[in-house]
Amino acid sequence: MHILSPSVLTTLLAGLLATIQATASPVASKGLKPIKQVQLGPRPYYLVDNLEDGPLKKKLASCMDKNMKTSSWSIAHRGGCLQFPEHSRESHMAAARMGAGVLECDVAFTKDRELVCRHSQCDLHTTTNIVNIPELNAKCTTPFSPAKDGKPAVAKCCTSDITRKEYKTLCAKMDGFNASATTPEAYLHGTPNWRTDLYSTCGTVMTFKEHLALTRDLGLKHTPELKTPEVKMPFEGDYTQKKYAQQMIDTIIEARVNPKDVFVQSFLYDDILYWLKATPAFGKQALYLDNNGDAPGSLPSAVANLKRYAKDGVKYIAPPINYLVANKNGTIVPSSYAQEAKKLGLKIITWSLERSGQIADVHKNGNFYYGPIQEVVTKDGDIFRVLDVLWQKVGVVGVFSDWAATTTYYANCFGIGLKK
């Protein structure tokens, strides 16, 4: 008697599930079709104009009259959250219209174990209007408490505090809060001044199933991130991390999405190893989100870890931008991390562009994403200088951006990942 290995059995079960689902109708996305006319708006052209004169500016300026196409190199980070409420339907549609070839859903679970799109399991108090809905605020892990006696206002609301049905009654808003608020309504404010509330009118929150349907029907690729739980696991005693990781995969299969169009992500290395073993069709394109070099002085150990990832069969590594660049005598160059990843044959996807505000402020005050090159970047046009190094010298195969127009413009000018 031949006993099938767990990975083979899981693959067979996934195929059976897909066959069963083929007889049912997946979630609809309101008749969406692939976008034929990509629209970038003025920002990338402003960035080109703002560049110092030189070969890069000349090249990018030569592309100003191009008809832009969708690019798989341009990955939407939470949609178009520079200006739209993150993970709202409106945010994802904005990113798709700006030519993002890959849309992201950060996957979290509700109290009734439904999967929804939220950047953090416990960010509803800063990204939605939940604290201003008394019956839902009361269910929060920490209901809103006003600022008083010199102490700031506090709240903590998690997707696992409420059901899917309750979640769908929320309005998405720009991420932010007012720590000096004395009322729930006032707490909702606090959008950074380099973003905008222009489109923060009541963004449509999305479930993972809805996001899969939208992305699929737009003809784009998917990159769902399994968010690290902020509640004790197993949740309510029996919902383990592996069940959570497998549920995300099962939901993708149910939506009839081809594994080759999916790049699953996680900051938890055990999730990556689980997918590599249990669901290899998805595991082979899994992105390990590497934050092991965040602590001061820890980047060398993060570089050393890359050999283990490659040995374990990881194909894609996804560090933040600051891991990949360095300042060498006033010039932006690939870092030791970038060089080692390239040497090992790891494919690199990085995050997150357009998440730092005005570059003049970055130069003056510092910023996580630009840390090693703070002294080199001085104005907004330098965003394209960074992108140029990431593509030409580091060789990244994708860039997450809060405003996809910027990465789409660069990709079109250099012919990267363009949709035929």
From TrEMBL:
It catalyses: a sn-glycero-3-phosphodiester + H2O = an alcohol + sn-glycerol 3-phosphate + H(+). SUPFAM superfamilies: PLC-like phosphodiesterases. Its EC number is 3.1.4.46. One of its GO terms (biological process) is glycerol metabolic process. Pfam families: GDPD (PF03009). GO terms for molecular function: glycerophosphodiester phosphodiesterase activity. Residues 1-24 form the signal peptide. Residues 72-388 form the GP-PDE domain. The keyword Signal applies. Transmembrane segments: none annotated. InterPro entries: GP_PDE_dom, PLC-like_Pdiesterase_TIM-brl. The keyword Hydrolase applies. It is an enzyme of class 3 (hydrolase). Keywords: Glycerol metabolism, Hydrolase, Signal. Belongs to the glycerophosphoryl diester phosphodiesterase family. This is glycerophosphodiester phosphodiesterase. It comes from Linnemannia exigua.
